[in-house]
Specification:
Length: about 300
């Protein structure tokens, strides 16, 4: 019996020591919990960098910061109030710029951006009753009279193979084998039979923007810096495919097939589908632009998102 009591005593001591070992050992709860990676880290950093650079421009009164603020807003995953406030500063500054009522001489380089349609001069004829008026492509009274005298052409619809939009052009205006565009990627380009005038549509899928005003401002800055002989004439609000848009009219230096430089006049209409800019552009020799103006307007009015 003595040996039995000794065995029981030894087993009790062993159990006690085992319990103390388990009690003192590390518990599962003390293991560090892995921290999940931030899925928005990259876009958040992109937004912050664009916001800071844009704000530096704005603080100096330079509207070149507005496209950067536009980028910051579209990449902001947190809906930060300071970015929204900077965007509102941009839109307010653009709205306060003077509205063009007549085209300045080609030598002048001006940016005229507005958020409301320009009022027609008092002497301009009213071709549309005020109750039916809506934002459309703006023009001078002389141009409006010319368009009224030109009969509407029969246009043929062209549809984007990717199903994004449609636009109509005169039946005798062929499409180019490869569309060219100053901004975005050219989708279609039409030429009149003489080769003097052209209209193209481009889509900028690489950029997400908040408003056509800010995208138009970025185009204005880019063309001033890169297009030979560029001079802005008008930048006015319009409506395209039932969406707000911006129409820019300008002159620039173009080179023909023989290498001769000549002055051309062109327009660009910027309209958004969601946050993707679509750019409808057209141009002709400056002295012939007037005769194509009505056709340009008719083509732009047929543009529709699918």
């Amino acid at each position: 019996m003595h040996w039995f009591r000794s065995l029981v005593t030894w087993m009790g001591v062993s159990c006690a020591l085992g319990g103390l070992t388990l009690a003192c050992g590390p518990s599962a709860a003390s293991q560090p919990t892995p921290v999940a990676a931030d899925p928005f880290a990259v876009v958040r950093a992109t937004s912050q960098a664009a916001y800071q650079a844009g704000k530096d421009y704005l603080d100096r009164g330079d509207l070149r910061g507005c496209p950067l603020i536009d980028t910051a807003k579209t990449t902001d995953p947190d809906n930060r109030p300071e970015i929204q406030q900077a965007l509102e500063r941009c839109l307010q500054a653009i709205a306060e710029l003077p509205t063009a009522t007549a085209a300045p001489p080609p030598a002048q380089r001006t940016i005229v951006l507005a958020t409301l349609p320009a009022a027609a001069p008092a002497s301009a004829p009213q071709s549309t009753p005020p109750a039916l008026a809506k934002p459309t492509t703006a023009a001078s009274p002389v141009a409006a009279a010319t368009r009224q005298a030109v009969p509407a052409q029969t246009l043929v619809a062209w549809r984007d193979p990717q199903g994004r939009f449609s636009i109509s052009a005169p039946a005798d205006w062929p499409t180019a084998d490869q569309a060219q565009a100053l901004f975005g990627t050219g989708v279609v380009q039409f030429h009149d039979p003489s080769g003097q005038a052209e209209v193209d549509v481009a889509v900028d899928t690489s950029t997400k923007v908040v408003s056509p005003e800010l995208y138009a401002a970025s185009m204005e800055i880019s063309m001033q810096q890169q297009v030979p002989g560029y001079a802005s004439e008008q930048v006015l609000p319009t409506a395209t495919s039932n969406n707000p848009s911006i129409r820019r009219v300008f002159t620039f230096t173009q080179r023909d097939a023989s290498g001769r430089d000549f002055q051309a006049r062109g327009f660009q209409v910027t309209v958004l589908k969601g946050s993707t800019p679509y750019i409808i552009s057209g141009s002709a020799p400056a002295e012939q632009f007037q005769q194509y103006d009505a056709t340009f307007d008719q083509m732009v009015e047929t543009f529709r998102f699918s």
